[in-house]
C-alpha cells in the first residue's frame, strides 16, 4: 500500500506466536539445496492477529509516539505488528533500489522491534520497494533483471540479518512486485540467500490479483496475500452481505492452499473509512465522504468470513495511525481503525 499512498500523494499534491502462534516449533534449519522448502511443519503460521505500522521517514520508528502506538496496537488484542522499511527506485526500469530520506533508519527499526517485544508483540519485517515519484510497485520491470535481482538480494539480506539480530519472528521476501514475481528461478535464489541469514518463517506478500501467478510458493513457508478484493459495486454497511461476498473468494483460497500445502496469511487487508470503501479496498481516495460505519462493517465481514478456516493463517491489517505531520489522508478518511468503530470490531474479535 505504500506505492498506492505515494501515488495518491502525487495526484493530490501534484504477520507460533501469540495466543496461536506463527510457528509450532520455532525457526528451523534451512531448506534443501536450491532454495526449496519442504512442507513447513515447523514453520507453519496460524492465528496471526496483526496490524501494520508503516514508516514514511528516516526517524519515524524512533519517534516518541512509537511506544504509545505499540501499546495501542496491543490493546486491540493484536499479537503481531508489521514494520515496512522501504527503498526506492527513480524509474520502473532501474537496475537497483536505494535508500532515501523516507527509508526507516536501521537504528530506528531495531529500536521499535525492541519496543514491540517489550509490549508483548511479535514482529514481521516486510521490506518494500517503491517508486520515488509514486505509482504502483507492480510496474517495476527492470531493463537488466540480473542487475536488479542482485541489488534486490543485497537489499533483502540486509534486512534479513537485521531480523535475525533483533529476533523478529517472521520475514517477508517481497511485496506486490508483480512485474518480477513470475521469474521463479531468480526468486528462488533470493529466498535461498535469505535463508542463509534468517531461520524464521518466510512469506511473500502477493497482491490479490497476483498470487495465482507466483511460481515459488513451495520455497516459502506461508502464502502471503494482500487481500484487497472488491466486495461489491456499491457502498454498504451490511456486514452480512459483505460476508457473502467473501464466500467465493474463500472457497478459491481454500483450494489454493490445499494445492500448495501452505496456509494463507493476509499480509495486508484494510479499508479506508470512506463511502464505498469495499468497492475498491486498495484505494486511498474512494470518496471525500467519511463512512466509519462502512469500514467497521468491512472489518466485521472479513473476520466473520475467515474465522475458523483451517487454511487461514491470520491477518495483518493495513494500517495503524500515520505519524504526526506525515499523513497525506485525513485520519477521519484514512485506513487506520484507531478511535473508530472498526477498532471496537477488532477488540470484539480479538478478545479485549
TrEMBL record:
PROSITE patterns: PROKAR_LIPOPROTEIN. SUPFAM superfamilies: (Trans)glycosidases (SSF51445). Residues 1-25 form the signal peptide. It comes from the Bacteria. The keyword Signal applies. Residues 22-50 are annotated as: Disordered. InterPro entries: GH, GH113. The keyword Signal applies. Pfam families: GH113. Keywords: Signal. This is Uncharacterized protein.
